[in-house]
Design goal:
By secondary structure, the protein is an alpha/beta fold. It has two domains: about 1-45, no CATH class; about 70-375, Aldolase class I (TIM Barrel, Alpha-Beta Barrel), CATH 3.20.20. The chain contains ten helices and 13 strands. The strands form three sheets. Strands 11-10-9-7-5-4-3-13-12 form a nine-stranded parallel beta sheet. A two-stranded antiparallel ribbon has the order 1-2. Helix 9 (about 295-315) packs parallel to helix 10. The protein is globular, with a radius of gyration of 32 Å.
Length: about 375
């Protein structure tokens, strides 16, 4: 009996020790819980969320964009090269250049990455950022969506003389794809979007082209005009520009590519004819080699463009915006047909100023190597 009592006492002691250890553990556990968890309405337990980082804000458009835009063209490849960006900074500092046209989507179909840092780089130097989109010449999207691409009637996708694929200009899926790229670029702070290759192809085996969307009933001009109108309707409130063949300033037809200058007047903020003298046919306005006469070629073309704009604006319906669009041409800063030194480029710029007068809104220099003739655009002391 004595042994039984001792055994019970020992068990009771063990039980008490065990109970006390549970109480201590519970107190420590509750303290831990109070530090690491939130108790809500005694029904749910949640981890404390770490404080959220500040919301990321992409670059905004320039508050005060320049009235007269003087730009140089930059490929997406050049824009990724820090040495080239340093070269650009020197151009901005020492010349009259106050804008760039950089490929958002180049003629190879490649999409520009890291837009935010690039736009910030430009805006920090008060440089107006124009994003260029090559619309229908697009090998990447053509491979991804071959059912929307111009095909070769003999098999496969059709190629131009440079071996590049084209998209069907009548495809609204293609239109929407390019508009989505433009909207994205605007969200990343680009001040303007420039649409290039907004036309039908102009070289290659034209007879072998097949179109999956275009029914051949509408004219090429009607297709491109509808595209211009669609762009404007989807990008209201944004600055957009269109690159046109230089000869559209003189030719009243669509030149076989669907581009007619009058169709662009009401739908773009800037009309950008590519008036490269080297691209005019020998004998144009009496010159055996137009490339050797930059002043005369550019002035004649831009004066014709301005006159056509005035005539169209006068006959346009009330409220039409034809008179509000501005002419801002591409100029040649590359050697073709002649040596384009600083004097030749200066003559082109002077020709634009003389032809447009009070309507002068600037120019854009094109050099596929992205190296520019600084002597033609030095800041005036």
């Amino acid at each position: 009996m004595e042994f039984y009592r001792k055994e019970n006492s020992f068990l009771i002691l063990l039980f008490l020790l065990f109970f006390l250890s549970l109480v201590v553990f519970e107190l420590k556990f509750q303290k831990f819980i109070s530090q690491k968890f939130l108790i809500s309405n005694s029904r749910a337990v949640f981890f404390k969320k770490p404080p959220l980082p500040p919301a990321y804000k992409p670059p905004k458009k320039l508050d005060n964009p320049p009235e007269i835009i003087k730009a140089v063209y930059v490929t997406g490849y050049s824009a990724r090269n820090q040495k080239y960006l340093n070269y650009l900074s020197n151009i901005f500092e020492t010349t009259e250049i106050n804008a760039v046209v950089v490929d958002v989507k180049g003629s190879d179909g490649a999409i520009l990455k890291d837009k935010d840092n690039l736009v910030k780089f430009f805006h920090d130097q008060n440089i107006y950022a124009i994003g260029r989109i090559s619309v229908f010449q697009d090998p990447v999207f053509a491979r991804a969506r071959p059912e929307l691409a111009i095909y070769n009637k003999n098999g496969g996708l059709w190629r131009d003389n440079n071996g590049l694929f084209w998209l069907d200009p009548a495809s609204k899926d293609v239109w929407d794809y390019n508009i989505s790229l433009a909207k994205d670029a605007f969200l990343h702070g680009f001040d303007e979007i420039n649409f290039d290759y907004a036309r039908f192809p102009s070289d290659g085996n034209m007879e072998s082209m097949g179109f999956p969307i275009w029914d051949l009933k509408k004219t090429k001009q009607e297709v491109i005009k509808e595209f211009f109108e669609y762009l404007r309707s989807k990008l209201l409130g944004h600055r957009i520009s269109a690159d046109l063949f230089g000869q559209t300033a003189i030719d009243v037809g669509d030149m076989g590519i669907g581009q007619v200058m009058e169709d662009a007047f009401e739908n773009f903020d800037y009309i950008c004819p590519m008036v490269y003298p080297s691209h005019y046919a020998n004998g144009f306005i009496g010159f055996a080699n137009p490339a050797e006469h930059p002043y005369e070629i550019v002035k004649y073309s831009m004066a014709n463009a301005l006159e056509r704009q005035k005539v169209y604006a006068a006959s346009a319906p009330t409220g039409a915006s034809a008179s509000q669009s501005k002419l801002r041409p591409w100029l040649q800063d590359f050697d073709m047909g002649a040596d384009y030194n600083s004097e030749m480029v200066k003559l082109e710029i002077k020709a634009v100023e003389d032809a447009l007068g009070k309507n002068f809104s600037g120019y854009m220099l094109w050099n596929p190597a992205n190296i520019y003739t600084a002597g033609a655009i030095l800041k005036l002391e």
